[in-house]
Design brief:
Layout: H1 15-19, H2 21-30, E1 48-52, E2 67-71, H3 72-78, H4 83-94, H5 100-107, H6 129-141
Antiparallel strand pairs: 1-2
């Protein structure tokens, strides 16, 4: 189960703030606004979380290939379990069929070329404090349409 440190981290900043607006929007799009674990429909600001596939406690980074959408129930219950531990726990407690391989495959979906250069186009790039700050600055000041030219809204 999770350590007490999971919920008591000082000066905790949200993951979405650390990775930036566009990266967060991409995750919402990629995960179809649904919990990656149970499939529950999610609405921003209403119990929706970004869940680390490899938790910070186990060396996981703030990068789009390590993050999926999760409902409050699944994210809170999982805490810092590995995907294999979570799959077993979710099956036993909630009757869910969580596939660690499917979660990893989902998170590995390539980021669209239209978002290249926004601070998260390279899925292997780690988001350190400097990169996250740069991505936040770019996304708040950039008013260009992120779609490739010639595409309809």
């Amino acid at each position: 189960m999770a350590s007490n440190a999971h919920n008591t981290r000082p000066d905790r900043e949200s993951v979405s703030k650390r990775i930036g607006v566009r990266a967060t929007a991409w995750i919402w799009h990629r995960d179809r606004s649904a919990c990656a674990h149970c499939g529950a429909a999610l609405t921003p600001g209403r119990g929706a979380h970004l869940d680390h596939l490899t938790p910070h406690a186990h060396g996981g980074a703030d990068e789009v290939t390590n993050l999926v959408l999760a409902c409050e129930r699944c994210n809170s219950a999982r805490q810092d379990m590995s995907l294999a531990q979570w799959a077993a726990y979710a099956a036993e407690v909630y009757g869910l069929k969580v596939s660690p391989a499917r979660l990893v495959k989902r998170a590995s979906t390539p980021v669209p070329a239209a978002l290249a250069g926004t601070g998260f186009h390279d899925p292997s790039a780690r988001f350190g404090a400097e990169a996250a700050a740069r991505a936040r600055n770019e996304t708040t000041s950039d008013t260009r349409d992120p779609r490739p030219s010639g595409t309809a809204p």
